[in-house]
Structure formats: structure tokens, C-alpha cells
Write a structure and sequence with these properties.
heterodimer; A: Rossmann fold; OB fold (Dihydrolipoamide Acetyltransferase, E2P); 2 domains; six-stranded mixed beta sheet; five-stranded antiparallel beta sheet; 8 helices; 25% helix; B: mainly alpha
Amino acid sequence: MSETHLTIEGVSKSFGDVRALSNIDLKVDRGAFVCLLGPSGCGKTTLLRIIAGFEQATSGKLLLDGADITDLAPHKRGFGMVFQSLALFPHMSVAENIAYGLKLRKASRVEQKDRVEELLNVIELPHIADRPVSALSGGQRQRVAIARALAIQPKLFLLDEPLSALDAKLRDNMQIELRRLQQSFGVTTVLVTHDQTEAMMLADELVVLSDGVIQQAAPPSQVYQSPVNPFVADFIGSANILPAVSTSQSTLGLLGVDTGVSVEHAPGSTLQAAVRSEAISLRKVESGGTGIVSFARDLGPVTEWLVQAEGHEIRVRGASSAVSPTVGDQVSLQFDQDRISVFAS
Amino acid sequence: MSTTTLSKGQALAFAAPAFIAILPFLAACVYILRFSLSAEQGVIEGFSIRAYQDLMTPFFGRSVWLTLKLAFIATVVVMFMAVPLAFLLTSLRGSFARRLLTVTILLPLILNLLVQAYGWILLLGPSGALNTVLKSLGLIERPLFLLFNETGVLLGLIQTSLPLAVFPIVSAVRGISNEHLEVASSLGASNWRILRDVSLPLLRPALVGAASIVFAFNASAFAIPLLLGGRRVQMMGVAIRDMISPLFNWSGAAAAGMILILLTLFVLVVSAWLVRVTTVKTKG
């Protein structure tokens, strides 16, 4: 099986009275692409900066291949870093930027030149070596920043919101590019983002953070399908979080509908359920429906509805069809049993 | 791209008071230029380059050389002092410590030059504080002569021009993004390497600007060389005054003034050019 490359053990960080991270435990496999995901202020950037060595953990340990690197200076860690601002050196050419880490490692001029050439080929910009960085487009700068970090054959590749400054289309391309580069270099990667689509697309392992605590660390599909708490369910792919009860048959009752999902909680206990918008289907009924459609929009392949039911607004997404309910229709709701997550209230 | 919200016309209108202040100065420069070309020493009459020819003496040559030398040494020393001070000032977190240091550095600008000069005299004079201490420690037998020579003038120039260099550099240091430094560190650069490879190159325009101000200020210094150097250290400012005051050689003083302005301009232009050339080279 895969072997652990980076181990984070009980890392906490406080800034004065403010606790940014609480007791973070995380193992990162060699060659894995890990995304730290969470809303702003959740501590994801602080965790990355601790890994990079720019911040010192208040307590806890960092192990790389089993060796303690907690107190190692950042310049001795050998981790490649890419910031959102990219921070290319404006007084150096593209080649000098990429070669800088090699120069510090006292690589010969020939080695430096070969490696720069190789990396420029990898990022598919072979002819820009001698240009000043000010002459590059946004996407080119992005690639150069990545190449500069990869040039030193980093033990870890760390990225802090690297794509956030790009426009949507370029960001899409760069995500694919980044994933391709990461895989071809086989480098263990930790990326911080607040964009859950980006995280889902890039990550082997998704680490969802909130309030300085890891909420869930698992492969993206697992996080999406089996969120461990309402926060994760809502943050990843925005689920409907609804109050629910355990029925006398120990099944889940939701909006007065017995979903048939069996639950472990004692009959009568109040629960919370997270249901994805695409896990609900609507059926138009003449009377006795669960809710009323208050909004419908046809997005082409799918339609989105808002349904008012029992005082809740429920978001539903499904295939468009000629018999789709429209605004004002009474509807009954059916839940996809496999895709409901149940939490104690 | 315009970085200001004012149109060119509006900017000109707002700059009018500045022009009103600057124009008489320009007129004075023209007047001095004209005087330096006068055939008479005391009044403007006729055209002649005699005033310039009369300056071609070993005495005036020494004065020019001394002026350039002292201004240059003072500039180099000031820059070596200003850069660490600027880094220290930007790294101080506590607002009290920062304000205290700021005021301390600013003091030479706030304090009257005369007071500062007498301060130096009290400190460095033959029976001043420093000599008294050194003597009582038995380190010296006779007082060190630190005043009324080049050493004293140099100390004075360095002290009075230091704040002129520190504050432009401080604002430039603040402008360096932390991420540039952190990226360099992640690539393996120690703090010294970051300073050498990233911070100083990024600061270069500000360093050149600060050094230019300091050099021009020191080359044209008058009060400090007069008070701390006496008549023995004839920097050009002092030499020009002597031509006017005891000698009433107005055209000669005007010519010397023109030479001082041209020399200073020449040094500044050459240094700016050198910077541009080396910058282009690094961009390869």
C-alpha cells in the first residue's frame, strides 16, 4: 500500500488569544495530491504555512519520512512553494527565476540551463527563457511559478490558492495542467483552496477544515457522498440540511415522509439529514403533496427547483423534461435512499 | 494608465503654487549663470569666461576634489547605516519602539543645524566629552583632534544626512511583498541570500534615489563644513562664501556655484545611467 510521506501530529497554532488551529492530525501519502479546503479563516493557509516553515506551530510535530522537521528552517526543507500572487522575481528573467533554486544548490551553469529548458518544455513554453517576467501573460506567469517550484525537485509541493487570481476559463485549463504536472513529477502536493470544485477536481484526498479543526479527511467522492457532519455536507456541494426524526420503525422521517432509510437512533429522537439537490425527485400531484414549487429554472441539461415544504426551502436538481413541475405546482418529494446523510441533532 | 484621478489640467492647476515657488529659484539660477559670465567681478557687465579661468587653480581643484570625496564617503557610510535602520524600523512590531526610533532618526531634521554642530563640538572638542573619557581611561595621552579637520566634517555630514536616506528606504522596504521573500526561502535561500538576491535588487531604485539625495545634500553642504571644519576644510560651499564675503568676487562665486551644480548633476546622471545599464543587463 501507499506509504506515509508527511505526518502532522497534534499541531495547534494560536495568534495571541486567537486559536487558528486545534490539534491537527493528518497523514499525507507519498505522491498524493491533498487539498486543504474550507471557508476563509478556517486555518487552511496557516496549516500550509506551518508545513512550509513560515509559521511555527504552537504545539505539535511535523514529520517528513519519519524525521522531525518541526523546527527546521524553511530554506532547509526543500519544499516548492507557489503563492496566489505567484511572487515571481521581477528583477530576474524567466530562466533566472526558474534556475534560482538550482543556483542556490550550486548546480553548474550547464545543469541549470538544461533543467530550465526541460521545465520550459514541460510547461509548454519553450521560447520564453530570456523574457522578463513583466512581459508574460497571467497563464504564463502561473506556469513559470510552478516550474520554479518544481525545478528544485521539491520533497513537497505546496500551493496557496494558486489559481484564484485567474479568470474562470484559464483556471479550468490550469487545473488540468496542474494535475498533469503533479502526476508526471509524482510529487507529494498540498494545495490550499476555498473553491470546492477545484478541490474535488484536483485532490486524491480532501481535507475539509472549519474553525481550525479538520472536519473530514477522505477522498473527494467519499466526502461528497458520505459527509461526516452537516457542515461538510453543506460546504461540499451544498446539500439541503433538514430536520428529521427517527420513526417508530427506526427509519428516517423527513418532512413527514418516511424515507425508508434505517437509522440507529432511538425512535423519536430528533436528527438532521443532509440531502443533495440531485438526490430528490419531484412528482407533480393534484392534491396532498408535500410542498409547492416556488421557483423553477431550466439550465438546459438540468432544471433547478425551489420547493417550499413544511416551512423549509428545498433545492432540487434534476433532468429537464416536458412534464417537469412548474411554479405553483403541488409536488410530492422522493428521496434517493442511498444519498441521504443522517446526523444526530 | 493614469494613476491619478486628476486630469492633466487639474493637476497643473493644483501644481501652480509649486511653480510659483520654483520659478524665482530658476530665475536666480539664470541670474547666477549670467553673473558667472560677467567681465567684472562686482557687477554684471559684458561677457567673459574669465571668472571660470580664474578658478583653474590648485586651490580650487583641491576644493572640488575634497567636496566630491567627502560627499561620496558620507553617502556610502550613510547608505550602509540607513539600510539596516530601515529594515529595523519596518520589522519593529511595537508601536512605541517604532515611534521612538523614528523620532530618534528624525531628530537631525528637527534640530537646528547650529545646535547640532555645537553638540559635536562639545562632544569631540580637545577638552570635549570623548577626549576626557579616553584620557581618564588612560587610552590616550594627548587629545585626539577630531574637529576642524575632515573627520569632523565627515561625522557632521553623515549625521545630518542620515534621515534623508532612511525614510525613502523605509517606504520601499514596506513595499516588498513578504511572499517574494518566502518564495526565495522555500527555494533554499538563507536570510543573507534573500537580502542579496531579492531584497536589495528590489530596493535598488529606492537606494539610488536615497543616495542621490544624500550626495547632493552633502556636496552642497555649507553650515556643517564651516562650523565643524573651520577654514581648514574648504568644501565648495565654504570656498564660495569666502569668495563673496571677504573677497567680493561675485562673478567668481557664481562660476564656482555653477561648477558645483554641474558636478552634482553630472554625478547623479551618471549614477542613474549606471543603474539603468546594470538593470537591463540582469533582465538579459
